[in-house]
Design a protein that fits this description.
single chain; 270 residues; alpha/beta; Rossmann fold; two-stranded antiparallel sheet; binds S-adenosylmethionine
């Protein structure tokens, strides 16, 4: 969740330089620095997001109309060095694709696959407050190892005519990969088009982001709020999209963003 890692210094002018997704140094993303800053401990904003996503997926799959579905495949788009979106899909998936552009993050994910680090345990503990996670017959590490497939790739290359998934997540990616609103909107569109009609999804966004640093490299972002997020999701969603601004429950860690937004919805049949 990007900006929480060393955002612009207080008083810095907002960045005006345009940087497209293809121009950013993704292979130099430092997953150790990123995890250390963002996910070493479970923060209350992540906890709030996790609860919303856990309840959304649990409610969706509890309903009779989805109970008879066959093998399910989940996808986390731009997984980076964050395992909790994949953990949130774990009870319902026979396979989970972690799609990631950065070679360094792909390496991190491969290392986590066989036996993920203990910093992810408190995230799993929040999930187990719901029966689907708590009643899993398998140890979460064993299930993670068995179901996760790590794929190095570009979300702009996702092609719904070739492949679609039955549930999906995309956390802090569409708004945190470019200064371009067009790329933000296209990123959200590619994510939703990768999902089958009716598939439940959860997406998280940094609000009002002006870019971020991870390790010694700076990465681009575009500043979005609930309006832009809702407008990007609505054309390919059905039913109600639950959008929640998380704000900064513990106050700002640093300047350069205004909070977080979590969106839970369902892919339309268009
Ligand atoms: C701010 S990080 C978010 C990581 C993680 N999802 C999280 O919740 O913390 C943005 C991630 O998007 C990935 N990314 C950027 N452009 C991408 C693209 N075109 N296709 C796939 N992943 C991309 C980056 O490598 C990075 O891992």
């Amino acid at each position: 969740m990007d900006q929480r890692s060393h955002d612009v210094a207080l008083g810095d002018p907002p960045r005006t330089r345009h940087e497209l997704n293809a121009d950013a140094p993704w292979d130099s993303f430092d997953p150790a620095a990123y995890v250390d800053h963002n996910y070493r401990l479970l923060r209350s904003d992540d906890e709030e997001i996790l609860i919303a996503v856990r309840d959304h997926f649990s409610d969706h799959f509890r309903s009779a109309s989805t109970a008879s579905a066959g093998p399910r495949r989940g996808i986390d788009v731009g997984a980076g060095a964050n395992l909790y979106p994949a953990l949130a899909m774990l009870p319902w998936c026979d396979e989970i694709t972690l799609l990631e552009r950065s070679a360094a993050n792909v390496q991190y994910l491969h290392a986590q696959r066989s036996d993920y680090d203990s910093n992810w345990n408190p995230f799993w503990d929040v999930l187990t407050k719901e029966g689907a996670y708590r009643d899993l017959a398998e140890d979460p590490r064993a299930r993670f190892k068995r179901t996760v497939e790590i794929r190095e790739g570009n979300l702009f290359d996702l092609d719904p005519d070739r492949e679609q998934w039955s549930m999906g997540t995309m956390f802090f990616v569409a708004e945190s990969m470019s200064t371009s609103y067009e790329e933000f909107r296209t990123g959200v569109e590619r994510f939703l088009r990768a999902l089958e009609p009716g598939a439940p999804y959860a997406a998280a966004f940094m609000e009002g982001s002006v870019g971020y640093e991870v390790g010694s490299h700076r990465f681009p972002a575009c500043s979005v709020g609930e309006t832009e997020v809702g407008e990007a999701l609505t054309p390919l969603s059905e039913g109600k999209i639950v959008l929640r601004s998380i704000g900064m429950p513990d106050g700002p860690l640093r300047p350069g963003y205004e909070g977080m937004i979590v969106a839970c919805g369902r892919r339309s049949s268009e």
